[in-house]
Amino acid sequence: MTIPLHNPYSLQPWPTAWHASDHHRFIALASDYDVAKNLSPHFPHPYTMADAEAWIALQTGVDPPKRFAICDPQGPIGSIGLTIRQRGQTHPGHTAEIGYWLGKPFWGRGIMTAALQVMTTYAFETLALVRIEAQVRTHNSASIRVLEKLGYKRETPPRQAPLRQDTPEAILLYAISRDDP
Which residue in 124, 77, 76 sits closest to 98, CA to CA? Predict the structure, then answer.
């Protein structure tokens, strides 16, 4: 499955997007501190081959896929995905948190706007989600613009985020519902 964005970019499920020739470039993009500082503290920094291999193993066999590589013709340049919240042990949730990142050399090209738009539609239409939430650090104005451009609404005042590199940060919660105009 390949989901076209705008030429030459696409979304591909991680197991099919990951090739031996991509490793070094992707790991360098993922290890950039300017990328990592905007992500969850669970995102490793520096990013290693072992981190990449563990990530691919987690995505293998997931159907339908919930996490995609953002690719150019040479391979992955970023990632976007959904973490579905469960209601109890036996009932699937209808809300997910979306997370994403893009290698710094690709910033400012509209790639993430296109990827987020496609993933939002995919979440509502394919995964039958009702609500998508995104947490964004208050200093990440580019991500805030992307979310607002696509109709995500800010729901909370800034609140304390988990620390990254022992630096206190505040985050905002944005969300969109399937029925939003």
Answer: 124
Q: Single out the residue of 95, 68, 70 nearest to residue 83, CA to CA.
A: 95
* Burial track 97-106 (b if 16+ CB lie within 10 A, e otherwise): bbbbbbbeeb
Q: How far apart are CA 18 and CA 26, in angstroms?
A: 10
Beta-carbon contacts of residue 145 (< 8 Å; ≥ 6 apart): none
Query: 154: helix, coil or strand?
Result: strand
* All domains in the chain, ordered by first residue: 3-177 (3.40.630.30)
The whole-number mean pLDDT for each consecutive block of 10 residues of the chain, a chain of 181 residues, reads: 90 83 83 83 82 84 90 92 71 81 94 96 93 90 94 79 61 90 65
Q: What is the CA radius of gyration of the chain?
A: 16
- Rounded Cα gap, residues 76 and 25, in angstroms: 8
In this structure, what token pair is assigned to residue 129?
């989600």
pTM: predicted TM-score of the whole model, two decimal places: 0.87
Amino acid at 43: F
Tokens of 130: 């009702």
Count of C-beta atoms within a 10 Å radius of residue 89? 5
